[in-house]
Every structure is written in structure tokens, then in C-alpha cells.
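## retry 2 of 3
previous attempt timed out at serialization; input unchanged, resubmitting
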Amino acid sequence: MPTKAAWIRFETDSAFHFDFYLAEKLHMSLDQVRRMPAKEWLEWGIYFGRKAQDRELARLRAGGGGDGGR
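## retry succeeded, writing output
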């Protein structure tokens, strides 16, 4: 069982969390992701951030605002 510190780090350290996310998405080990050049790591972060923005904008355009019509 992970320590409480490990759980807290996932909630408070976005870079730590993104390492795991990127490893999963690219089917790489965590070690491989952490040896990736910083420029590439940052570019992947921008790429996935933009994808999330595009999905959110599409959801809002489709009327999925989630505000109950207020």
C-alpha cells in the first residue's frame, strides 16, 4: 500500500502526476518518460492540454455546459 505521502504527491505535484499520465499514454515506462528531454516533455504537456481544451470547447458548443440551463 502506498504511503500517504505518495497519495498527497499525486494531488499536489502536477509534474509527478503528468509523468505517469504520459507513460501510460505513450506506452512507456516511467523511467523512459523521465529520461525524455525536457523540451519534448513540455511539448507533450502542451499537446495534451490543447486536446483537453478542444474537447471542452466541443462539449460547450454541443450544449453540454452542465449548468442546467441557467
